[in-house]
Specification:
single chain; 6-stranded mixed sheet; 9 helices; globular
Amino acid sequence: MSELSFHRLAGPPGTCVLALAGEADSDTAPALAIALDTALCGSPTPETLIVDCSGLRFCECAGLNELLRARHTAAGAGAGFALAGLSPQVTRLLDLTGTRAVFDVLAKAPPSATGKSRAQARTTGIPLPSTAPAATDISVQVAELAAEAERQTATGRWDLSTASTALARETAARLAASVGPLDTQEALPGIERLERLREALAVVAIGTAHTHGQLAWFLARASLALTPVLRWRALTADREHAFGTVVPTPQEFTDAENAVRHLQSVLARATTHGFATLQPVRRIL
């Protein structure tokens, strides 16, 4: 099983540097999606995200798709996005897929504004178990679901009807309306954050009820990923009267909200320009 680790450093003012180490392949793509989304949605929101690839031993199309998706997300938010420290293998992959010109490429990442070296920085390893992630790890499940949708697109198996496309577009718009940007959400009281998350879950459930086939199956999986929200409460209560509900942590709120944003992004891209439909290529050494 492949592994990917990353650490996030503050670069020059307005710049966030996300340093990757390991392999970006189909096993680690969900973790890479979370790392990129978290960096782009950080507080304060970066003006530019630089992905330092100098520690990336190997990258295949699943990892490249996540980089392309993050670049698209950054552009939509008016932020810059660049790759730095490309190895010969990653450079060759970009050349073979015709995507090198899409990215801003730097020879190396700028020095950290914190003065920490890479070795001193806190490194977060991302374990990728063979079993399903914990039910409360909402964003991981949504990232895996999004990766599967992109794999189906790349192989020509994701094919929505006109009616399903319209419903997906409507669902994406309603999800965007239910959960706002990170800084907006974090300023809300817990009870309102919970209301918005429950509204997002209702949007996905209603979409599931009004379609069939691939979109219904995708939305059903999304609903399952979001179901821990139903066990959350924002009001104090003793154990006896709380019906088994729990008060989520701020990080759990953010994790669920990031998952909703990820679902919205997948549905929006599927109904506009589609996913980055890169065909799988053999392992390039």
